[in-house]
Sequence to fold (256 residues):
Amino acid sequence: MDATIATISCTHSPFCSESTIDWVLHELSKLETSITHFVHLGDVFEANAASVHGSEYSHTLLDEYAHAAKLLARIRKELPRGVDLTICTGNHDDNIQAADPKRVPADLRQLVNWMDHPEFGQEFRRWEWLPYEKTRRCVKRVGNVLLQHGFMAGGNSDQNEAIQAINSCGGHSHTLVVRGHTHRPLPPTQIMKNPTIPLPFWCMNVGCLRDYDPPPAWMKRRDSSQWGHALGIIRCRNERPSRLSGVTWHAELIRR
Fold:
């Protein structure tokens, strides 16, 4: 069985503009009849209200929920009926529900489950949310394609984290690992053992959909020049990895 996966990352509601959402929907409209899986790779929310740092914004967590629910609903309605809808929880999302009194006091933590919100929870419950943890439970597998949010942020983090994900999910050759987290788009790239020896693994990063011009204040001492808006389209064989041999996928990074 063949699958077509569309994937985005790091919308950071409410900082994903209407024009950016319109661009995503336009790209999806070109493929809507063939898409079988849609995967949001996490950081759905900015999680400003659960930050350990002083607030630099005027919006509330409720504003983030409202924006994210509308964004997810617009995407879902652009897709064919019956598409597999998955969200790989990101670190910003996880911060909202983290058991950390510096973020949300324990006596208020029962209020931060977006699934239970009376107005917006219905949309959030339409999606399967994978946990943010360094285990195979945080990974969405479709054939020989693995999708996750990501944990590392260094210059070689796409390759290093891809190898970790592949090892934790069985070590199958010719696997592609797709992630977000760093906001730096990367087209499908073969992983190298050293400058001359390639490994039978690939990595890809779909960047972000957050507004980045200007970058947020917390990036003023860091480099955001490589940030970019992108989405990924992957076509693959959707079978058990043990039944697959060679490269059984084709991936494309679409940059805005």
